[in-house]
Amino acid sequence: MNDKQIDQILREFSRVDKQNVPECISKGLDETLAQLDNIQHKDKPRRVKRKVGYAASVVALIAFCVLGSGFVSQTMAEVLQEVPVIGPIYKVDKNELDATAKKSLNHVYKLFPELKNYHIGLVVKGTRKHGYNTEQWDIVFTKENKEINTLDGDARVEIEAATGRILSVRQKKEFSGTIVYSNPSPTSEQVIRKAESFLKQMIGNESQDYFLRDIGDVCEDANPAEIAGKSFLFFKKFSADERSSSITVEVDRENNINYFERSFYDALEITANELNMQEVQLILDKVYKVYPDVKELEVVRATRGKENVVNAVAHERTALWLHEKGKHRLVIQVKFDTSGNILSLYRYSTKGFEKRFSDQDTKEKAIALVKELYGEKSNEYEFVRTRAGTSTYKGKDVALNAAVFKSVNNPKKSLSIDFQGDGAVLGITVFEEK
């Protein structure tokens, strides 16, 4: 979307009858349009950058006010359709739910029976392109029998309009929590079976296409040491012609399901058919050299494209998420360029070693690894120094040591290898500064 299109969209908002527009939208819009008029008299490169920034701000403001206030007039909805991150949104009467949506909602009631005691306070229909990018119903519940004009109720259900597919069910929790997947507390088989059984009941035969990829702790923000429940991340099996997706299920400390959500990934996702499996095997062979204790890795997700990293050159790269067969946890992420050179390698585990791997051992092991991984191209990297660091394990700082190399051909390019206290590699990163 160019700057002229942004101008046009914002000025379309200004033509909507302001008596029917929430004050927050009207005020923010007027200020932004004034800024746009001022910017147009400045030099062109600056104008484009600043205009996009102001436009992004007002779009975010409009989205917040529209969804927060429940304002969804026909006129505004038609204008919203042209905004990149919002799409058309309509507030509707709960009696307007169609048969497909009602059938899905009845299915939700069977698995979340407490919602039957709640009241529907708001129903919104529309497309929000920052979410599932599909037309959907948002059904917001309240414990009190009243209508509301916000998506922040006591519970919320999202349903895909065309198919009736349940996208999410979220019950408001009595605490603010964070999901921690690294080094979670032990999980009983009973709780695992609870999550797996729920998923089967929720999505039926589709559940056969998913496997349990990770288990995390839901920790209270006010007291991180307090575990309020378990989060289960199910991944769709990597297939020849379908891109990755995942489902999150949360079980609280009373062993009740209180959260279900589908997630879909970005446009860089690729399928198994789009991977060169011979190339993948060469990468796996390198990974096994770094982590000899890991066996039978399989690809569970893959992306390809240029990755934007702050102050770094964006290389065309393929990223693989690797899972050890027969285990719940995700093990490794590896990224490599079009020539098969590893750009980054990371293992999803940190062990609690208080003693730091020695500088001499770090240097010797790193130099050997660089030769193993890069072969003839290893001469490009020259060892510079070791660098002490820390990581976190179960709330405690643990010691790390890194070996830093510089490229003899490119002064802006460097390589670092992080070691845990036992000499195991935590990660490898190639960084090329812009």
Automatic annotation (TrEMBL):
Listed transmembrane segments: 52-72
Keywords linked to the UniProt accession: Membrane, Transmembrane, Transmembrane helix
Protein name per the record: DUF4179 domain-containing protein
Species of provenance: Aneurinibacillus migulanus (Bacillus migulanus)
